[in-house]
């Protein structure tokens, strides 16, 4: 068993925001080790080679129906090596299916819910006793499109709204385990580019996303990543516990607020 700072698990860590969070966590003196999982791990493995033993990368499908039991393996690896888990960040998600409700196959909805929602439940159940022991925290990556209806983006938004509600209930189950859902804003990632050009989205939504890109309004993923790193380092501030908030809310909260 090794001593040190925070021990963190992050899903959906291989690209985009997840990769940015892992990159910033590796540089944090308050984080002892990161256990990261994704289907795509090339960039993570490059980072691992430079992380001085601070990063463990696992490749696999976290959805419960995959049979790979990645969530259990991540939790067991962290506890076996460090004896604790201080924080988990549930970032893995499926953006698709995109399109109108009556035109998107039910099997695609089920797949999205399995990866985004039920995999999160699975991870929480495996990590729960260890988070209780460490008085740790659970962070969810949310999205600003849950703030209001957006046509042809319904499946993704509904899975994220379910996570928002889940985050609000966790502190009621055990006050020793805190939770927060953070929406990172509009982030400049390869995933954003793919979604913004997908013909399954309505023309109005695609035009809006294109405008964000052309105006330079997209954030570098390292910017909102700092909010997720702050929570992993210091826990969820009392005033934000159980809430869905923006990345700016996390960074702007009084550092002396009760945690």
From TrEMBL:
Keywords (A to Z) from UniProt: Oxidoreductase
Organism superkingdom: Eukaryota
Gene3D superfamilies named in the record: NAD(P)-binding Rossmann-like Domain
GO molecular function: oxidoreductase activity, acting on NAD(P)H, oxygen as acceptor; oxidoreductase activity, acting on the CH-OH group of donors, NAD or NADP as acceptor
Family, per entry: Belongs to the short-chain dehydrogenases/reductases (SDR) family.
Protein name: NAD(P)-binding protein
Classification of source organism: Eukaryota, Fungi, Dikarya, Ascomycota, Pezizomycotina
């Amino acid at each position: 068993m090794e001593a040190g700072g925070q021990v963190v698990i992050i899903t959906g860590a291989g690209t985009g925001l997840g990769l940015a969070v892992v990159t910033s966590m590796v540089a944090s003196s308050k984080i002892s080790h990161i256990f990261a999982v994704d289907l795509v791990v090339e960039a993570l493995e490059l980072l691992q080679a430079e992380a001085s033993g601070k990063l463990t990368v696992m490749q696999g499908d976290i959805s419960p129906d995959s049979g790979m039991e990645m969530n259990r393996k991540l939790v067991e690896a962290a506890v076996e090596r460090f004896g604790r888990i201080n924080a988990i960040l549930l970032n893995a998600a499926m953006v698709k299916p995109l399109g109108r409700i009556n035109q998107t196959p039910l099997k695609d909805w089920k797949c999205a819910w399995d990866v985004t929602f039920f995999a999160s439940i699975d991870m929480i159940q495996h990590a729960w006793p260890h988070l209780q022991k460490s008085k740790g925290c659970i962070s969810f990556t949310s999205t600003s499109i849950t703030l209001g209806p957006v046509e042809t983006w319904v499946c993704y938004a509904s899975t994220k709204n379910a996570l928002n509600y889940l985050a609000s209930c966790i502190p009621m189950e055990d006050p020793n385990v805190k939770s927060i859902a953070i929406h990172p804003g509009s982030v400049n990632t390869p995933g954003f580019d793919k979604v913004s050009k997908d013909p399954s989205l309505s023309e109005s939504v695609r035009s809006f996303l294109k405008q964000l890109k052309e105006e330079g309004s997209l954030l570098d993923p390292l910017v909102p990543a700092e909010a997720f790193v702050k929570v992993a380092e210091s826990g969820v501030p009392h005033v934000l516990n159980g809430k869905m908030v923006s990345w700016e809310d996390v960074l702007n909260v009084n550092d002396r607020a009760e945690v």
